[in-house]
Structure formats: structure tokens, C-alpha cells
Amino acid sequence: MSSFTPATPRAALARGAAVAVTGALALGLAAVPQAASAAGSGDRAETVRSAPAPKAEIAVKSGVTKITVSAETVAKLRAKGILLTRLDARGNLGAKVDAEQTIDFGVKSGAVSNVKGKVGGRLAFKTTGMAMVNLRNQRIARLTAFQADLTTGIMRATLDRRTPIELGTFSRPQVNTAVNTKAREVNVQGGLVLGGKAAAQLNKALRTKAFVPGAPLFDANSRITLDEKADPRAIRELGREAAPSKAVQAPQHAGR
């Protein structure tokens, strides 16, 4: 609980209590910070500063990310002999991925937060994936265990079930536009730009030069459903720090 000196004005006490209640309702995932007040004596002024809002996350209940490869990307890769295919949970090759077709990645777990006004958090996807096949030498690069780092805007995966790979980066949306409080959903969409190290890893695995750093790889559209136990409106406040209040002049003691 927050502590206040007897000299704290009633308005300041109300502000401190409001901060505590807001923090407690913001998921119950973080303890309510204590509000500090400087004790004064005589005619000295007291400064009461609001406590920072709790830095917490809202758990993800479910969701799906739809990955779409543009016609331009498909054409460029096929010109180099590279074919994109779906991959099942056992790692078996599935149907090829044509231009503008989608691969659905179900969300297994995750959490969403507010990082300086933009969507943050993380998503882990179910055991599906995609593969890249070099038709010229029959080499295959399997990508599984996809994870989206919403805080840094990095898409990660595992290459051939053993090598971590940071596929590339995507743009993070603003919280105010991405969060639908009525539907309890968060929507994150944008293109994935291939990273330099990832391009080198894929080229080595497939013995090709088809992958170029900075080239678009695919578009991803994620629709995430938030835990029903949490208030989705709270995400607009997560990670923010309340601005300090103005100095409050303590009342003068009688007889002085």
C-alpha cells in the first residue's frame, strides 16, 4: 500500500489512491508501486510524485498469423530455382506456395504489452512451418518453430531443426491503432525484410545466391485474441510512466 504523511492534502491522497487502483486493475500481473511523499515541517513545501504505471503484459489466448508471399518474390526465387512449400508438423513437405497464397501459423502462446506507445511482447507459433527447395540440386531448407518478437520487430525460426535464425524484421504498429478493445484483439501486419545473416544462412543451406539482404520475404498479418480475464483497455497504459505532479504546498501549522 502507498503511505502518506498526515500533512498530505486530500487531493494528493486521492491521486495516489487512483494510481494504485489503476495499477491493480491493469492485469494483476504487477505489484502496485509505492507512491513516495516527501515529509515536510513548518512552512516547507511537499512534493508528491505519481508512481510509475506497472510494466506488465496481457496474455494471449489464441490467434493466427497469415503469411503471404508476393508474386514478385515468388517469381524472383523461382528464377533462381527456389520453390517455396508448406511444411507439416512432422517436417514433411506439403503443397507448393504460389503467389498470393497464404500459410496459416496458429499462435501457441504469447503476451502483448505497450512499449513506448507501440505494440510489444512475443508470440510463439504451433509446430508448422515452411520450406525452401532448390530444384537445381534438390537441397531443402526447413524453417520451423517460428517466433515473433513484437518488442524488437524480429521474426525468428529454427533452420533444419537445429540452427537458430533471425529471418528478418517487420514494422511494429502503434497501440492505439492495433488494439481493438471491443473485440479483445490485437492486429499486427506488415512485410518481413530479410536480414543479412539470414540471407547468408539460407544461401549456404541451399547452395545458392538467391537470397539478398534487405529483400522482402513475405507479408504477415497477425490477429491475436487476448486473455478474457484481462481488461484490454489496460494495454493502452502498460509500460507508460505517469508524469510527475506539481509541487503541493503543505498547509501551515496553526500557531506559526
Series of H and E elements: HEHEEEEEEEEHEEHE
The amount of beta strand, in percent, is: 35-45%
* Poorly predicted runs: 1-55, 239-256
Distance between the termini: 33 Å
User: Quick check: average pLDDT?
Assistant: 77
- The percentage helix is 10-25%
Structural class: alpha+beta
**Strands of the largest sheet, in order across it?**
1-4-5-7-8-9-11-12
Profile the largest sheet: 8 strands, antiparallel, barrel
Radius of gyration: 25 Å
Shape: elongated
Descriptors:
eight-stranded antiparallel barrel, 12 strands, alpha+beta, 4 helices, disordered C terminus, disordered N terminus, 256 residues
Describe it:
The protein has 256 residues and is an alpha+beta fold. The chain is built from four helices and twelve strands, in the order αβαββββββββαββαβ. An eight-stranded antiparallel β-barrel has the order 1-4-5-7-8-9-11-12. A hairpin with a 4-residue loop joins β7 (139-149) and β8. The model is unreliable at 1-55 and 239-256 (pLDDT under 50).
Short description:
This protein is α+β, with helices and mostly antiparallel strands. The chain has helices spanning 10-25, 71-79, 175-178, 196-206, and strands at 58-68, 82-87, 93-96, 102-115, 118-125, 129-134, 139-149, 154-159, 163-169, 179-180, 185-194, 216-226.
Strands, helices and their partners?
Elements: H1 10-25, E1 58-68, H2 71-79, E2 82-87, E3 93-96, E4 102-115, E5 118-125, E6 129-134, E7 139-149, E8 154-159, E9 163-169, H3 175-178, E10 179-180, E11 185-194, H4 196-206, E12 216-226
Antiparallel strand pairs: 1-4, 1-12, 2-3, 2-6, 4-5, 5-7, 6-7, 7-8, 8-9, 9-11, 10-11, 11-12
